[in-house]
Amino acid sequence: MTEIKFAWSALGGDPVRLARLTTVPREGVLPARLPVRELARACVGACALAAAELAARRAGLAEVPGVRVDDGAVAAAFHSERHLRVDGRAPVTFAPLSRFWRTADGWVRTHANYPHHRARLLGALGLPADAPVEEVAARFAERSALEAEEAVYGAGGLAVALRTPKEWQAHEQAAEVAARPLVERERPTSAPARVLAPLDPAAAPLLPAAGLRVLDLTRVLAGPVATRTLALLGADVLRLDAPWLPEHPDQHADTGFGKRSATLDLETDRDTFEELLKSADVVVTGYRPGALDRFGLSPEALFARRPGLVVAQVSAWGAYGPWGGRRGFDSLVQVATGIAATEGSAAEPGALPAQALDHGSGYLLAAAVLRALTEQSYDGGGRWVRLSLARTAHWLTDGIRPTAATGGAPYEGPEAWLAETGSSLGRLRHALPPVSFTGGPTDWARPPVPWGSDSARWR
């Protein structure tokens, strides 16, 4: 329970609440050299406790509903993108150019799932759009890992040199990350206490976020996991994307449960966004720090228009230090922070058994939003919460003590935590939500819809 206590404390939670939480450890889930199982359990447990706390507040319950965290459910959820099936078809999780490459002195990992990132990667290497993998490999083999990292980044692409834990600790960004709390929490404005409509304590299921409006400006993967969780808990989540930046269909299907999806050009249709913001309760962003500022979406600008807002942000490297403005993804953060070196061998780098930095940060971000809403119901004020994948990685590598890999209930695979549902996207097999408390929801109220198929307005 030590790691759950730490996560709950990072969220500002009352330690008394922890007595309402029980765990079901299972042997063999999320096996790794690093304590991935413990991190995953802590992030989901803290999120479930935050949901139960808000439910108790709104329903006038004498005590917080009991929370149960099952390692099997957590493991299935942390592999949700892998378990997804659309009419029986398995998803494609990484494009051919999203992989490790040998360099003249080591390794580099690239991320090129999106067409524009692929184009920038090839441009940085001086290759045409139809260049075969063999030519890409040859170009990387001519350069040092750090040279390749800087060249691709300079072209607007994504590549990170493999670093050992010691090499990362010597990096200026690592020091900046380690100096921050796991969850950054601020109260930047004054505002009246939030009035939350009471919930019927006999309602089934009990939805702590019912009636709350969430603007979802996120992309793969941590941000969408957070907003998917808020949708599970009853929030009206409206995801907004630029019309020219479609999401990968499989990733959208995996993280779109419970949400609506619309496109909006912030360059030409700012009025529509302002109308949405007028009655929004929460804004969640998952782009690199500063990327949305020119649209009036910096936290400071949002609070100037809506002082009682909850603004939640997640990024790869944090909004500070020399890498504060860089793009990034879970796989790249693993490579930079020494995780890939730790999980690999002398022959080649490795990886965590799941995109645990993304999923863990996503559940922590949802928990931070839920706790912020509970706090606002007592003393008002705007709330600004921030997480970074790099800070979650620091917690994994330097802050969690591994427990014995053996012991606990048997784990016989994910089937008990998978479900099927019909949708306009096809027949979906998906992982059930791991966030569980007595009386709470056990599945999403609605399946995902096609990307951009809804109107940019509240229900």
Question: What is the topological layout?
Answer:
Blueprint: H1 2-10, E1 21-24, H2 36-59, E2 67-70, H3 71-78, H4 80-83, E3 85-86, E4 100-102, E5 107-110, H5 115-124, H6 133-141, H7 145-154, E6 159-161, H8 165-169, H9 172-178, E7 184-186, E8 213-217, H10 222-232, E9 236-241, H11 249-255, E10 260-263, H12 270-278, E11 282-285, H13 299-305, E12 310-315, H14 330-336, H15 339-343, H16 356-379, E13 383-388, H17 389-398, E14 418-421, E15 428-431
Parallel strand pairs: 1-2, 8-9, 8-11, 9-10, 11-12, 12-13
Antiparallel strand pairs: 3-15, 4-5, 5-6, 7-13, 14-15
Helix pairs in contact: 1-2, 2-3, 2-16, 5-7, 10-16, 16-17
Would you give an account of this structure?
The protein is of the alpha/beta class. It is 36% helix and 14% strand. It contains 17 helices and 15 strands. The strands form four sheets. The protein has a seven-stranded mixed β-sheet, with helices on both faces. Strands 3-15-14 form a three-stranded antiparallel β-sheet. Helix 10 (222-232) links the parallel strand 8 (213-217) and strand 9. Helix 10 (222-232) packs across helix 16 (356-379) and helix 16 (356-379) packs across helix 17. The radius of gyration is 21 Å and the shape is globular. The model has no long low-confidence stretch (mean pLDDT 96).
Using only CA atoms, what is the Rg?
A: 21 Å
Number of E-state strands: 15
Strand content: 5-15%
Output the strand order for the largest sheet.
7-13-12-11-8-9-10
Shape: globular
Helix count equals: 17
The average pLDDT is 96
- Measured distance between first and last alpha carbons: 40 Å
Major beta sheet summary: 7 strands, mixed
State the share of residues found in helices, binned by percent: 25-40%
Low-confidence stretches: none
The structural class is alpha/beta
